[in-house]
């Protein structure tokens, strides 16, 4: 049996000129885990996922997915980007966006087999009715679903999600966790998800990473969603919002 970590960070530091986004971050996530990554705004959460994907280069250290550079194995990796950074006026339909998850380049002509795969993936996330819709006209929650369909279209072994529940209503959020847990039980996939919802992290995740540039905690939810780790990462805010009472 392979002992390779699904996600491996080895002393990763990322500097953006004068900003240190990540400092000496190391951890191993075993295959099949559901990791929640939590931390305040600007903590380096999105940077961490982009390092894993090879989109952002490290200043020191390295990160691998199943022992290899992520860029060598796009077919094994699904990614849902943080939608607040997505340009909503991008001229495309839901179908095109999902098919783009099957290719390295933007789809100009879509083959029937690709259309079928995209349809199946949209169906998986309960959004097959959106197939022909223009992205510019979708609601935030609809767009989240289409991005999730794109991420799952190749049935990846690891799914990285950057705040997929932000801007979706309570029921849609419930659907999202339900869907991810079903996907995981059917495929044994690994999931790493950024969230601001500490209660959801505690309830759904098998491991939690508490980040604020440094990794302040990595382990079982009940161990790392503790006063000390949260205080180090969030300062007084953790107390203010009552997250310690979880
Ligand atoms: N491409 C970039 N160039 C320069 N600075 C950057 C870049 N990307 C991120 N940063 C900086 O790195 C830090 C971490 O940013 P990051 O987006 O990873 O935070 P985050 O934890 O995802 O925050 P949020 O909760 O707001 O999404 C911030 O100070 C940000 O301004
Ligand atoms: Mg972010």
Biggest sheet features: 6 strands, mixed
Number of strands: 9
Low-confidence stretches: 238-246
Oligomer: single chain
The outline comes out as globular
What is the arithmetic mean of pLDDT? 90
Widest sheet: strand order? 5-6-7-3-8-9
Classify the secondary structure makeup into a structural class: alpha/beta
Gross CATH architecture of the domain at 7-87 and 157-245 = 3-Layer(aba) Sandwich
β-strand percent reads: 15-25%
Percentage of residues assigned to helices: 25-40%
- How would you spell out the order of helices and strands? EEEHEEHHHEHEHEEHHH
Give the CATH H-level superfamily of the domain at 7-87 and 157-245. P-loop containing nucleotide triphosphate hydrolases
Distance between the termini: 37 Å
Distinct compounds present: adenosine-5'-triphosphate, magnesium ion
CATH topology of the domain at 7-87 and 157-245: Rossmann fold
CATH class of the domain at 7-87 and 157-245: Alpha Beta
Structure description:
Helix 2 runs parallel beside helix 4 (140-152) and helix 3 packs across helix 4 (140-152). The strands form 2 sheets. This protein has a 6-stranded mixed sheet, sandwiched between helices. The chain has a domain at 7-87 and 157-245: Rossmann fold (3-Layer(aba) Sandwich), CATH 3.40.50. By secondary structure, the chain is an alpha/beta fold. A hairpin with a 2-residue loop joins strand 1 (7-16) and strand 2. The protein has helices at 45-53, 94-100, 112-124, 140-152, 170-187, 198-204, 221-224, 227-234, 237-240, and strands at residues 7-16, 19-29, 34-38, 60-65, 77-80, 158-162, 190-194, 207-212, 214-219. The structure holds adenosine-5'-triphosphate and magnesium ion.
